[in-house]
Write a sequence for this structure.
């Protein structure tokens, strides 16, 4: 009876040890474990799990190949739909997607689809295919270059931009990605920490996209150096905007500009992209007090809290205004954070940050955080029960560093420099969910800049659909 | 791209660079800045575009204050910046205002120059006041003398020009009852604060260019936030120039000091290396 095999655990570093290092927490399946886990899959004819995956990976097919120990074939099936399987296997909220739809989940535990995906992607990386390598290494020949069907500009080298670029390059388009930072990868490099997604994996995937012929121009802030219109006038047939939702939100409570208050974007970028955790070998500093409060309940909050622990905080308190069931973070990361010692304060909301002077340091520094207790009221627009403050429940927490991880908004640089591009009232670009088309001819958009903060796989899915639409658009436009 | 074409030491701690950067040069406007890196382990360091030819080159003037700026100033002709992103920030407002007092303090003289130059071109009368702690931190007096209708030089220790601080000649100009249409002050936060106090009394429109600690320079981290008219603003995208009379300079100075201890550590290690 296949169902009798229990869902296979993935080994992890033990909490006490890992809370002090930046190495990856989860260690991945061995070949043996992967094959055992693969045997649990019932190979359902109607494939309910596939419908749960935003990029429609043929899940039973790749799992069957694992069972047959043909890992190379499994990898091929994954790559067919998902350019970044090593990343999605690690960061997808599987419990809300593919695994939620798995038939086995109804009675017991779903197949560990994400873990299997990760296993296959890592196996492939460890067993590079020589023949493929050679093919990739030779750039598109000069003769081919002349007959390229067109040229596309992609703005932002996050998962959405990388996907669209890879797909268009495969269709022989000349593709240039413009990225504001000095490194491509978007949130995958500046947001998600090393211990959850090793940067070597992201680099590997970026190298793959480059090997398809995509050019990545870093240090190009579009809107400033070129506007969208300038790109269209200067030889690009189409533009795909994938700039993410990178504007930090603050709570607008008193004391938020005190020294010692960070946005999660700043805190994580200093640590991840600038490698402040290796200070002073790496020159970008980060300031971490003994007691740290992280405000929020999503992946960003978990990442910030766990990073603070690893940077040497004595205590890390996570403050979230709803209850645990409403937390938007991946379940695995909530569990990891708790195991590592992050202290949760649920149904709690900060209302004020109080400061003090510090010896030998200028300015006022965070000293205490005043919070209110909350209770859950009627459901709001998002369907989650709305937290309401309990009057008179104020209390004080001694805190040295506050990290605001309460979400992000749309960065206005592109919108303000492209006045005829339609945006909604929150500043996100309005784009067709099937094609990525905006109101401006030749301009497409997708990922977080359209949906608001969402998921890596969602941003990739948007890129994939847009690549098809851009292909169609340019083919029609350039018809002789 | 990013190649150092020419350099000159303007003083023992201040170095001028001309860089090949055609894309930025074509787009740059007075008042904008770039963010550079010179080594893989290095910080992202904001520098004002001190001049540009509009075709191929941009210029910076860099004063050594810590490990990052010291690494930059080690670069020589033929070397290359690892990264240069820009132009960032909003360009200066250039118009025919009338009489404009341009006040530059220390390294602030460099960012002031392209603005003063544009204002001159637009037909303004330019009265310049350039100050620094001592003569080693002063530069480009000839350039300013060429574009100014009047130029006052002042040092804290009197090693060049008058002895004193920039607010003194400013107060004298005001005392002469001269009509001043605008003041532009760029320099250390404390200098800008005191200039602002002087001009606020007389309601003279005053623009300052703020220099908080920055990280991305694109509005993504919020680290560069300051309070302007009681509201949080991100200097890299909403500025760097603001109405001085609305700026909370004490907060700016407080936030500039967040990494004081860490900077010291970097400096000490730099010396040991
Ligand atoms: C800390 C953190 C943890 C997360 N954890 C998870 C997780 O576990 N699972 C999950 O599925 N999702 C997670 N997410 C969400 C996920 O990362 C995003 O939904 C996804 O990265 C969005 O992809 P994107 O390509 O739209 O944008 P981004 O990844 O944000 O990339 C946008 C890129 O565009 C660049 N850019 C911006 N403006 C410009 C411009 N004007 N010119 C040029 N370039 C520009 C940016 O520098 C950036 O590189 C997390 C997010 C964060 C911040
Ligand atoms: C918009 C803007 C334009 C600037 N233009 C110039 C210029 O044209 N020439 C020039 O010499 N300097 C300029 N600066 C200042 C320059 O960026 C800092 O001196 C430099 O970053 C200091 O780095 P450091 O490692 O040498 O010194 P550190 O030892 O790290 O710090 C010394 C001082 O610099 C400040 N500082 C540190 N890191 C940063 C940072 N990332 N951003 C801003 N300030 C920081 C600190 O508050 C401290 O007061 C500008 C700053 C800004 C924000
Ligand atoms: S990409 Fe994500 S949702 Fe799709 S199968 Fe893989 S883990 Fe599941
Ligand atoms: S639903 Fe579950 S058991 Fe069925 S094919 Fe998909 S993964 Fe296998
Ligand atoms: S430097 Fe990050 S928002 Fe301005």
């Amino acid at each position: 009876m296949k169902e009798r095999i229990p869902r296979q655990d993935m080994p992890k570093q033990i909490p006490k040890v890992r809370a002090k290092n930046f190495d990856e927490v989860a260690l991945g399946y061995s070949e043996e474990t992967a094959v055992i886990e693969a045997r649990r899959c019932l190979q359902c004819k109607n494939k309910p799990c596939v419908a749960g995956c935003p990029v429609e990976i043929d899940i039973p097919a790749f799992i069957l190949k694992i069972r047959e120990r043909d890992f190379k074939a499994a990898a091929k099936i994954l790559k067919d739909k998902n350019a970044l399987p090593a990343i999605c296997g690690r960061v997808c909220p599987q419990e809300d997607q593919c695994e939620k739809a798995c038939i086995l989940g109804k009675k017991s535990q779903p197949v560990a689809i994400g873990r299997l995906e990760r296993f296959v992607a890592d196996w492939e990386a460890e067993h590079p295919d020589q023949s493929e390598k050679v093919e990739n290494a030779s750039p598109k020949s000069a003769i081919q270059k002349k007959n390229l069907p067109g040229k596309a500009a992609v703005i932002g080298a996050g998962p959405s931009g990388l996907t669209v670029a890879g797909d268009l390059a495969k269709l022989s388009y000349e593709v240039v990605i413009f990225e504001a930072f000095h490194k491509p990868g978007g949130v995958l490099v500046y947001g998600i920490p090393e211990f959850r997604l090793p940067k070597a994996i992201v680099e590997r995937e970026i190298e793959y996209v480059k090997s398809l012929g995509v050019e990545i121009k870093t240090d190009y802030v579009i809107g400033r150096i070129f506007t969208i219109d300038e790109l269209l006038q200067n030889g690009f047939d189409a533009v795909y905007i994938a700039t993410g939702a990178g504007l930090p939100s603050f709570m607008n409570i008193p004391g938020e500009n005190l020294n010692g208050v960070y946005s999660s974007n700043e805190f994580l970028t200093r640590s991840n992209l600038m490698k402040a955790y290796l200070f002073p070998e790496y020159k970008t500093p980060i300031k971490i007090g003994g007691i740290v409060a992280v405000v929020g309940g999503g992946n960003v909050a978990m990442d910030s809290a766990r990073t603070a622990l690893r940077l040497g905080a004595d205590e890390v308190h996570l403050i979230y205004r709803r209850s645990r069931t409403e937390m938007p973070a991946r379940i695995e990361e909530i569990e990891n954070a708790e195991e590592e010692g992050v202290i949760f304060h649920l149904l709690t909301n900060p209302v004020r940050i109080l400061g003090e002077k510090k010896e030998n340091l200028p300015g006022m520094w965070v000293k205490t955080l005043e919070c209110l207790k909350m209770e859950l009221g009627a459901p709001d627009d998002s369907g989650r029960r709305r937290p309401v403050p309990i009057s008179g429940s104020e209390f004080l927490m001694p805190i040295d560093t506050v990290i605001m991880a309460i979400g992000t908004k749309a960065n206005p640089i592109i919108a303000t420099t492209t006045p005829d591009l339609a945006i909604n009232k929150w500043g996100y670009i309005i784009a067709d969910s099937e094609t990525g088309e905006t109101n401006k001819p030749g301009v497409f958009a997708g990922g977080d800049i359209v949906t608001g903060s969402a998921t890596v796989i969602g941003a990739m899915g948007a890129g994939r659909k847009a690549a098809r639409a851009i292909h169609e658009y340019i083919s029609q436009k350039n018809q002789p | 791209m990013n190649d150092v074409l020419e350099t000159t030491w303007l003083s023992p701690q201040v170095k001028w660079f001309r860089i090949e950067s055609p894309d930025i040069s074509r787009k740059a406007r007075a008042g904008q800045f770039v963010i550079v890196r010179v080594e893989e382990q290095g910080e992202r360091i904001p520098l004002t575009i001190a001049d540009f030819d509009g075709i191929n080159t941009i210029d910076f003037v860099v004063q050594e204050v810590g490990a990052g700026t010291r690494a930059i100033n080690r670069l020589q002709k033929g070397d290359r910046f690892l990264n240069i992103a820009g132009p960032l920030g909003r360009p200066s407002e250039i118009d025919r205002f009338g009489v404009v007092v341009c006040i530059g303090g220390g390294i602030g003289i460099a960012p002031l120059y392209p603005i003063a130059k544009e204002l001159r071109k637009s037909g303004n009368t330019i009265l310049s006041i350039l100050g620094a702690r001592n003569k080693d931190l002063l530069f480009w007096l000839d350039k300013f003398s060429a574009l100014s209708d009047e130029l006052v030089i002042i040092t804290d220790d009197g090693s060049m020009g008058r002895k004193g601080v920039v607010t003194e000649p400013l107060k004298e100009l005001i005392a002469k009852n001269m009509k001043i249409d605008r003041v532009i002050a760029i320099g250390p936060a404390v200098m800008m604060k005191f200039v602002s106090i002087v001009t606020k009394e007389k309601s003279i429109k005053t623009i300052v260019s703020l220099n908080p600690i920055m990280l991305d320079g694109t509005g993504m981290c919020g680290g560069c936030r300051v309070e302007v008219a009681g509201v949080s603003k991100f200097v890299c995208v909403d500025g760097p120039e603001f109405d001085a009379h609305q700026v909370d300079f004490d907060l700016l100075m407080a936030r500039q000091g967040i990494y004081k201890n860490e900077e010291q550590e970097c400096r000490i290690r730099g010396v040991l290396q």
